[in-house]
Amino acid sequence: MRALSEATFARVAVLLTLSMVGACAVSTPRNVTEISLATHEKDAALYDDIHDIIVQHYGRYDNEFLQGMAQRLGEQLAVRNNMNDLVVRVTVLDSPLFNAFSHPPGHIYVTRGLLAYLNSEAESASIIAHELAHLVHHDASRHTRPVAESADSMIAGPFAFAVINDQALREAMLPLIATFSHGYGRELEIDAIGFSAEVVARAGYDPEEMLELLKALKRHEEGARRIAHAESKTPSVYHGIVAFDPATDARIGQLVASAVAFRTDPVYYIVPDSFVAALDELIIGDRVDYGIERDGKLYHKNMGITLAIPKAWSTRGLADGVVLYPSDEKVFMAAFSTEADLDQPLAAFMKSYFELDNLDGFKSATFSGREALVGEARLNTIFGERSAVISALYVGENAVVFAAIADDEQHWTKNHKLITQTLQSIRPWSEADEKFLKPLQLKPVTVPDGKSLGELYKASKDSLGIDHIRLLNRLYPDGEPKPGQTIKLLH
């Protein structure tokens, strides 16, 4: 991997802060042998940098069985479809977001948040096959949506913090930002559905099961939006799902039906009907290492801090940072932990990190006995100049960097006081905090006769809410499980 400066690494990381909230979903399929999979060596090095950044900031989920399953599925899908020149690397990310995405030359990512929703190995194969379709079709380079079109979305807000000095890396990132935000566009997504249906069929899976998954993902999106609206939160959904109107539905149905002819005998990694059991103890939602919400506060063990969350704001935690934003997605605050020389004066660190000529107007502050510097600056970002409140303080062996930015001057003025209050709420992490911050974990349960989901939910004593449990089990808004069915509860 090419060496990145700490400043470049940290800034590029912000590009990916919320990218996983929306990537693609699952026209005519093209023959794999007609598609060039060649990647220049210099491009491969750039994408290796991007892969390392993604894993660094989202985290690789610590479950080798699930990692092995995902990697094996990717390899088998490629091999059984004659993608002999494609080196597939599939990673399950330690993120609660509901997403999967990919980037050249062969990197595919599935979050544990999406994995928890899946019910079979065939469904997992369908997600990975869809990403393979985008890779072999070179959709990242064919997609031309300007990055600026994403400027008002929850995805792009954090992008505004980014300052990428490495021009080659910047050029490689820009098309990915657009696709991470909004998918590849209707026609490319439908094209990928047809292609991936053939891919799963050649690997022995039923393409009709992929079609049912697509419909389930669409219902999940509708349910997640309704629940998030009721909770004044921003939903995490699989954004690339194409709209299901009758004409599109018929078109996709024809593509999937034609793929059935390619089906071969499967070679299962997991015994059929045992997939949900394999998800036992899968972490659901936030975890304290990457930031967990409790009673209006965010506790982030890896950063070594807690802070107050503005009322009705949402958060997205990473391995070394967090982004906060309101439902209108017009203001974003971010805090990140980064390596620092603690012998270096804080002012010198801030000038270097934010690439400022001076700190005119900055003031010293004290947060729980720790020295901090706070001020405003104009940051030259990929969306042009933006006013930002920025700050830094040393916590433990690292520096915690804070930045806040608004979409326009109106929202900047309206939220300036709230930004300051959030910054002033930063406190050091306490080991005592961890005692009541256990993450929720998935627990497969066989439904006994005469038991409703409500009764089973009460017995599980989780704090997420029954609507979320219904959504997880594809029973939203008022479905009931059948006796003998394996469902997913939390504990």
As a percent range, the share of helical residues equals: 25-40%
Strand percent estimate: 15-25%
Number of helices: 15
What structural category characterises the helix and strand content?
alpha+beta
Low confidence ranges: 1-37, 144-165
The outline comes out as: globular
Terminal CA distance reads 41 Å
What this model shows, in words?
This protein has 3 domains: 6-281, no CATH class; 289-434, Mog1/PsbP, alpha/beta/alpha sandwich (Protein Transport Mog1p, Chain A, 3-Layer(aba) Sandwich); 439-490, Roll (Membrane-bound Lytic Murein Transglycosylase D, Chain A). The protein has helices at 6-15, 41-58, 64-79, 112-115, 121-136, 139-142, 167-182, 186-202, 207-230, 246-259, 275-278, 346-354, 409-424, 453-460, 466-472, and strands at 89-93, 100-103, 107-111, 283-284, 292-294, 297-300, 305-308, 314-318, 321-325, 331-339, 363-367, 370-381, 384-395, 398-406, 427-428, 440-446, 486-490. Helix 5 (121-136) packs across helix 8 (186-202), helix 5 (121-136) packs across helix 9 (207-230) and helix 9 packs antiparallel against helix 10. 46% of the residues are buried. A hairpin with a 5-residue loop joins strand 9 and strand 10 (331-339). By secondary structure, it is an alpha+beta fold.
Could you give a quick summary of the protein structure above?
This protein is an alpha+beta fold.
